[in-house]
Amino acid sequence: MQEMELTISEIRTETPLIRSLYLRAPEGKSLPPFSPGAHLQVKVPGLADARCYSLVTFSAETDTFDAPQAYRLGVRLEAESSGGSRFMHALTAGDTLKVSGPKNDFPLHATEAGESETVLIAGGIGITPIAAMASALKAAGRPWSMHYSGRSLDQLAFRDELAALAGPALHLHADDDAVTRLDIGTLLDALSTSQHLYVCGPKGMIDAVIEGAKARGWPACKVHFELFTTAAPVAGDTPFEVELSQSGQILTIPADKTIVEVMEEAGCDPMYDCKRGECGVCTATVLEGEPDHRDYFLSDAEKAGGKLIQICISRAKSPRLVLDL
Q1: Domain end point (choices 197, 226, 255)
Q2: What positions does the domain FAD-binding FR-type occupy (predicted)?
Q3: 267 burial via Cβ count (<10 Å: 0-12, 13-18, 19+)
Q4: Are 23 and 101 in contact (CB under 8 A)?
Q5: Residue-wise DSSP of 149-214
Q6: Residue 109, in any domain of the structure
Q7: Does residue 234 fall inside a structural domain?
Q8: For residue range 200-236, what is the model confidence (pLDDT) as tens digits?
Q9: What is the pLDDT of residue 75?
Q10: pLDDT band at 123, cuts 50/70/90?
Q11: Average pLDDT, the chain
Q12: Is pLDDT of 81 > 70?
């Protein structure tokens, strides 16, 4: 990925918790092209890992993607921020950011013969990659609709721009309104399993779409999602041991850390990328013990087999795991 130092040219307040940042290259040069669903990795001072922010646009002009004059990010201030969103919300126009990208782990599918309507589903700040997809679909003349949900209508960012882009294809949903509240099951019941689904938002929403689509017979290749949330402790998590069979090293994994994190602390160099259980880079073979699968990469059959684990996010149901590492 290309590394760049970009200048913040403008900041807009979208809601009390969400702001847009416009990033430009020195001397007004065009920025590298990006595709809908792409994100930038932003280096945050004091944090070891870069933070990922999706590129958002509401323009159906091709140059928006091919020769952008600015990148636009949408950033929500998180109550339990580890520092990333607080840093981003403290920036002012004229500040610079070190970024890498664009990178796309959430691409749109190619045009298909007799293509049916693509359904875009967003929750909260998950609207950012979804809006870029809507812009690209409109530019290409492809059929689509969008469902955008939040706790209340006043917490839905970019409403005016979305309305101008989408018109009647936009459906707004508010949790505090019984009439418009999004019911994933009802939505899926009204669709066809031939339709592509794209969802980005809170983990609960993504899980509901994935499970609901699976129960209704959707092919996995037509259900697309992106989750920027990394591993977090779950109520009831307890420590367990991991033995690395190739060295005999034994590690204790506390409830608030992942196998990858403890391995790094112990001087190991595990392979990983997303830290969200999506990409499969960190897959390890389980020689003994029972994994507690929390990833989105392994198939149901692979999870049931218990011989593979995503060490960036999954844990153990047994007191001990032996891994072929």
Answers
A1: 226
A2: 1-109
A3: exposed
A4: no
A5: EESSGGG-TTHHHHHHHHGGGEEEEETT-TTT---HHHHHHTS-TTS-EEEES-HHHHHHHHHHHH
A6: no
A7: no
A8: 999 899 999 999 999 999 999 999 998 866 677 788 8
A9: 96
A10: very high
A11: 94
A12: no
DSSP 12-54: EE-SSSEEEEEEE-GGGPPPPP--TT-EEEE--TT-SS-EEEE
Range of the domain at 260: 240-323
pTM: 0.87
The CA angle 58-125-213, to the nearest 5 degrees, is 95
Greater model confidence, 5 or 63: 5
**Tokens found for residue 113:** 């013969």
Statement to judge: residues 220 and 246 lie in one domain: no
CA dihedral 291, 320, 238, 313 (to 10 degrees): -40
Check whether residue 192 and residue 247 sit in a common domain.
no
Quick one: tokens of 202?
């809170």
**200 and 255 share a domain?**
no
- The two three-digit tokens of residue 71, written as one number: 């990148």
Residues 47 and 77 in one domain: yes
Q: What CATH number corresponds to the domain at position 314? A: 3.10.20.30
**Res. 260 pLDDT band, cuts 50 70 90:** very high
Cα distances (Å, whole numbers) of residue 183 to 118, 137, 148, 155, 214: 18, 24, 12, 18, 16
Residue 93 belongs to some domain of the structure? yes
Question: Average pLDDT in the 125-137 region?
Answer: 97
Decide: 59 and 71 in contact? Cβ < 8 Å. Answer: no
Structure tokens at 192: 């066809």
Lookup: tokens for 225: 């999602």
87: left (phi over 0), alpha (psi -120 to 50) or beta: alpha
CATH number at residue 74: 2.40.30.10
